[in-house]
What we know:
The chain has a single domain (14-43, 51-201), classed as Sandwich (Jelly Rolls). The protein has helices at residues 22-34, 68-88, and strands spanning 5-7, 14-17, 40-41, 58-59, 61-63, 97-105, 110-114, 126-136, 143-145, 148-151, 157-160, 166-171, 176-178, 181-183, 191-201. By secondary structure, it is of the alpha+beta class. The radius of gyration is 16 Å and the shape is globular. The protein has two helices and 15 strands. The chain has a seven-stranded antiparallel sheet. A six-stranded antiparallel sheet has the order 1-11-10-13-7-4, with no helix packed on it. It has a two-stranded antiparallel sheet with strand order 9-14.
Amino acid sequence: MDAPMTTAATPAHVVIDGFLGAARAGELMQFALEHESEFHQSRFYTAEREARVDTSVRDSSHLLELGPLRAAFAASVDVVLARLTSELNVCLPSETKKEIEMVRYGDGGFFKRHADAPPRPDGHDSVRALTLVYYFHALPKRFDGGELRLFSPDAGFADVAPVYDRLVAFPSTALHEVRPTRCASAFADGRFSINCWVRRPREGQSPSPSC
């Protein structure tokens, strides 16, 4: 397995290899191929503006409707959630909400430095607290690059390789970016992931986190 590359203080994150197993990773890839036409250009939020497409900032496509795979993935996250919140010192209520999407980065695809939980008009009564990214792809692997770069407050960083069947988790407030991906043009050649955000109520709303 490719170990994360780090410099200076290591940003807070947890890596779990073999998270779902090869069979379920293969199911996700097959689902992506069967729903290729339903992928749309990814959007992003800022503190000042609502969601928009800007490929100079984020160049990827995503799929929001995952059918029964969504509930199955959420259940797998629940199994490790207590471990993740403990190791990352993230407080969550006993019942959480999850956002889940499937994402593909093609040749040249990237996402510039950002945080998943900045103040923004996203229309939710909750905020992102924990970010999880799960990697899968066609076999054999057909792309290079696409590392997740996590930044620490002292200007250090850690690069996490998008290894097959790997889950990485980190606080949603952490600054991070997706490094450019290099691959051929076919849809199946890209870098695929499941992005999952575990949300908590905004401050002043119940239930309060218990930690």
